Amino acid sequence: MNPEKAFGIILRKYRGMVSLSQEELAYQSNLDRTYISLLERGLRRPTLNTIIVISRCLNKKSSEIVQEVEQLLNEHHTGEDAN
């Protein structure tokens, strides 16, 4: 798993937890809805500014989101080693 895919998984998780559609998140973050979709599918690499803006809209600290991405990557990496 790459960092973009991990970020997308975490983004979708938190967006769902606050019951925002991609369109609503896009509006609140001043980003395009298609960009949110690309991020969630792991097809775009978010900038630091994007992570900060999205985190605020999700009522999370950007450091928490980055930490979860790292945890997911570590879990996936550990799982690959076991195979």
TrEMBL record:
PROSITE patterns: HTH_CROC1 (PS50943). Pfam families: HTH_3. Residues 11-65 form the HTH cro/C1-type domain. It comes from the Bacteria. One of its GO terms (molecular function) is DNA binding. Gene3D superfamilies: lambda repressor-like DNA-binding domains. This is Helix-turn-helix transcriptional regulator.
